[in-house]
Amino acid sequence: MTLANQLTLLRVALIPVFVLVFYLPYQWSYMASAIIFAAAAATDWLDGYLARKLNQSTPFGAFLDPVADKLMVATALVLLVGLHKSAWFTIAAAVIIGREIAVSALREWMAELGKRGSVAVSYIGKIKTTAQIAAIIVLLAFDVREYPLMETVGYILLYIAAALTLWSMVMYLRAAWPTLMGEEGSGKS
Predict the structure, then answer these.
(1) Between residues 161 and 186, which one has the greater pLDDT?
(2) What is the pLDDT confidence band of residue 118, given thresholds at 50, 70 and 90?
(3) Beta carbons within 10 angstroms of residue 40's beta carbon
(4) Which residue among 48, 59, 78, 129 sits deepest, i.e. has the most Cβ atoms within 10 Å of its Cβ?
(5) What 8-state DSSP symbol labels residue 26?
(6) How far apart, in whole angstroms, are the C-alpha atoms of residue 127 and residue 72?
(7) Which fold has domain 3-176?
C-alpha cells in the first residue's frame, strides 16, 4: 500500500467524520466541517503529487482517487442542499453531481474501447474543480444566517463551478461524439 493510496483511503475515511461534524449542534461545526473538507481536498492534490514524484502510481490508486473525489464532493453538496433549501442551490448541485456521473460513465465506456485518452482530464476540468472546492469550503465555513455576504460569495463560486462543469462536459462529449455516434472511420463528421 503506497503512501498515495493511503492518503486516498484517508479521504474516503473522512467522509463519515465530515458528515458527523457537519451535523453537530455547535456553532464551530461550520468551520470544522469546512476544515475537514479542505483537508480532504488537500490530500487529493498531495496523493497525486506523491504518486508521480515517488513513481507510486498504481491501478488501485488510479481507480480509487477519482471515486474518493466524487464521493466527498457529492456528500458535501447533498449536505449543503439540505442546509440551504434553495432551488437555485439545488439546481447547481444537481448539475455538478449529474455531470460527474455522466463523465465518469463516458470515461469508463471510452476506456473499454481503448480510447480513454480522448476524454482525459482537461485544464478546464482543473479550474472547475478549484472553483467547486472553493465554493464548498466557503458555504461550509460560514453560518449563512450570520454571514449573508459569504453565502453570496459561495453561490457565485458554485455557479461558476456549475458553468465550468457544463462547459467541460460539452468538451468531453464533443471529443467522444464520433465514437458515440459510431462515425469513426466512416468519413462522417
Answers:
(1) 161
(2) low
(3) 26
(4) 129
(5) S
(6) 18
(7) Four Helix Bundle (Hemerythrin (Met), subunit A) (1.20.120)
